[in-house]
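Submission sheet (multi-component)
Chains listed below:
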Amino acid sequence: MTDIAIVYHSGYGHTKRMAEHVHTGVKAGGATAHLLAIDEHGDLPEADWAKLHAAQAIIFGSPTYMGGASWQFKKFADASSKPWFGQAWKDKFAAGFTNSASINGDKHSTIHYFITLAMQHSMAWIGTGMMPSNAKAATRDDQNYLGSSAGAMAQSPSDSSPDEMPKGDLATAHAFGLRVATFVIAHSKA
Amino acid sequence: MTDIAIVYHSGYGHTKRMAEHVHTGVKAGGATAHLLAIDEHGDLPEADWAKLHAAQAIIFGSPTYMGGASWQFKKFADASSKPWFGQAWKDKFAAGFTNSASINGDKHSTIHYFITLAMQHSMAWIGTGMMPSNAKAATRDDQNYLGSSAGAMAQSPSDSSPDEMPKGDLATAHAFGLRVATFVIAHSKA
Amino acid sequence: MTDIAIVYHSGYGHTKRMAEHVHTGVKAGGATAHLLAIDEHGDLPEADWAKLHAAQAIIFGSPTYMGGASWQFKKFADASSKPWFGQAWKDKFAAGFTNSASINGDKHSTIHYFITLAMQHSMAWIGTGMMPSNAKAATRDDQNYLGSSAGAMAQSPSDSSPDEMPKGDLATAHAFGLRVATFVIAHSKA
Amino acid sequence: MTDIAIVYHSGYGHTKRMAEHVHTGVKAGGATAHLLAIDEHGDLPEADWAKLHAAQAIIFGSPTYMGGASWQFKKFADASSKPWFGQAWKDKFAAGFTNSASINGDKHSTIHYFITLAMQHSMAWIGTGMMPSNAKAATRDDQNYLGSSAGAMAQSPSDSSPDEMPKGDLATAHAFGLRVATFVIAHSKA
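Outcome: structure written.
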């Protein structure tokens, strides 16, 4: 059975909700999924680190705050220098997602940071595998309305609760989890 | 009088329309503005290069194609190795804008390339200076609805003509030109 | 047999030499390798496009000029909007390399552009898989002395001919080709 | 008198030493300089935040850890959402520097994060203003041997103490501080 870990930080619950949709997508794709939360201090329990080490793929998730991943996510990333040193995550697959309040809002910067992190770990990066919905008839409820290739994006207005997140972005998160699982299962080492 | 040059490439007319709105914005801000078009072969007339050399600020514009500035813009950028070699543009101000069909669509990548180019020329980079319109009540007609800081963005649906470009994005382009002019006039060397 | 295409542009021969070392590395890794040159006009013969479509992995190569891939490479990338439209390269693996005159010199910018391009094509990205050689005892002849993860880098002094390229960087290019081939063979769809 | 604040985090003392050289450079350039350290918990005293608010320019500094600014620097950046909300830093100048163990080592990623942060604050970005030292005769002691435009870089081997940092990189840091001060003084609003 293919094992995929989703490790994320969420400040106000939006990224958590997005992570949950990625999680159901990964399961729908036929993989065993672990949903691992980095806490408000930027810490992750030892047992969860063990799950990361055991997984075939790791999906990173974070809000975009001030143009990049949250400091709590970065604290986790800095702590990953331990498995990095021995290249313990080498040849795993990696992917990532982010949520922010603005339509663009430098989400690309967060995704590219995730890629940089994955590359230092010698992982292989998988994007959304989705075409954008960008014709005149496109609606906010469409899959990949935000038009992202390198990682999944959600946009939650600055005054919206997690319950009010755009349905299309959550459906995108689900489809993204499914795509990652499908790809990883198909391309895992025989 | 402060002199600002806008140098852009446009493939289908959308970026041209955006450039024209930046142009009126720069003039509204009190500067002399030059609107210079890179042609379909990636060439710029000698007289226009002279205008770039004489300007206090240069604003770069390009569509985002396949995740970056168009090859025609890049050909112009590569040709700028000539003024780069003697650092002829050193200490000028720089800024940039881009249009693409998707809401995100890697426009951030184009803007960050413009910044990288400006930095090689030892220019100083100015962004939009605009807060995003990102509350629940936000509409597509709002200034900076796309939520960009590092450069101005417009999004034209894949099946829309230049005439059909979102009004809010064109107003954003105008406000961006005005902001650049105002900043450059205020901060030009005494 | 696993098929890997290397598609590159070279302005003065340094990137060509690097590409040749990637090529021998790919072959040493057990894959069939195609070395495809984008010409000075940014064009690639139709027969070579067919080889790209048939390959399991595509490795992009370009010098870094003025902070990004050369305009000739970008013209190729823009022309790849044709296979992009039908997502003909979806689920292929991708990787990349670049050469420039400066030790850093914004090579990261070129590699990240390659990644952005690969993501639009829904490809999966593979880096160097190499730890940096960065202790006090490190020498310019070491593998990955330049310390890059996301793609292979070479640095050729501004006044050096292709023959004078640092041996360590060429060895790195070879090892990079070998790593890509090994990864792709191990992870190709059953 | 022009006021410039340098705000940095240092994990093992190398970035601190670099910051001190930036500091002397800023003073040599004729500005009043404030050297402000973010502590190991990612905190900055209130009095230092006040100095940031009062300065005409802010220079960001951080080591590059796991491909980006340290989490402590990011915690500071996230806390800057408070002045961001009211755009208290609007129209200040900004610049940045970083140190890491590898020659490249994704330092570009840290510098581009600094730029993204500065753009959200509506600041104007200044780079090194230095040509690279990249001919065959170049030596590790040269100014800007590392070849960076967008921000100052230093590279300290993984097993070197702060005392053993390359002299050329420290001289580069000094020259960078001087360049920022000179530019800011020349271009401050009349």
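Remark: The longest helix of chain A spans residues 167-187.
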